[in-house]
Amino acid sequence: MKKLSLLIALLTCTIALSAQRTETLFGRNGLGFSGIWGAWSTNYSFYESGEQGNTAYINGGYGGLEFGNRVFVGWGGYDMNDFVDLDNGVQNFKLKYNGPMLYIAPFAEKVVHPRLGALVGNGRVRLSDGTSDRVLVIQPSVGMEINVLSWFRLGLEGGYRFISNDNLPDLDSGDISSPFAQLDLRFGISW
After folding, report:
1. Could you tell me if 80 and 97 are in contact, meaning their C-beta atoms sit under 8 angstroms apart?
2. Number of structural domains, the chain?
3. Bigger pLDDT: 29 or 139?
4. How much of the chain is helix, strand and coil, in % rounded to 5?
5. In a domain, 30, yes or no
């Protein structure tokens, strides 16, 4: 009888201990999968070419997965709407790029909260004379996000788009790198 009582007590303790949740990196209390989001983005880029400088609209979007309600991992793609004048009409360029992205949103449970992001990917610069070249794009950003509805978020951010590895004659990476301001309309679900 003592052995049976000891066995029941041991089983009860084992079941009680196994019912407690352990915090893990990707488990319930860690960076668990918590949502799916997609966004339409437009950004306004500023170039210091020509006498007065130029601006360009770049449209695109991204989609991906949310972890721990604060970390977003996804893929984005962007395309410049029009050619940008580099040298008073002598040379114009257009940019298209895509790649993996990461966003971190501390205090995501608040209505308005900060957001840090980065995209690193490949792209293509095309000149108005038809020549083109592949480039590396690194685009860090910082901004804020507003939780408008449970399935809709509005993001406002700014950053700098670094472009490198261009091998086009008479074109410098500094000419096509630029600061930008961006608006995101994000749609999805978190749980």
Report:
1. no
2. 1
3. 139
4. 10, 60, 30
5. yes
15 inside domain: no
Cα 86 from Cα 174, distance rounded (Å): 11
Q: What is the pLDDT of residues 72-117, one digit of tens each?
A: 999 999 999 888 887 655 678 899 999 999 999 999 999 999 999 9
Structure confidence at residue 17 (pLDDT): 46
The pLDDT value given to residue 11: 47
pLDDT above 80 (res 161)? yes
**Considering only CA atoms, which of 114, 95, 101, 85 is closest in space to residue 37?**
101
Give 32's DSSP letter. Answer: -
Q: Which two tokens stand for residue 127?
A: 């000149």
Residue 17 lies in a domain: no
Write phi, then psi, for 19 (nearest 5 degrees). -75, -20
- Structure tokens given for 57: 């609209």
**Chain position carrying tokens 């668990």:** 32
Write out the residue range of the structural domain in which residue 93 sits. Answer: 25-190
* Residue 18 structure tokens: 């196994």
Residue 142 pLDDT level (bands cut at 50, 70, 90): very high
pLDDT, average across residues 126-135 = 87
- β strands within 48-177, DSSP E: 54-67, 71-80, 84-85, 92-104, 112-127, 132-149, 152-164
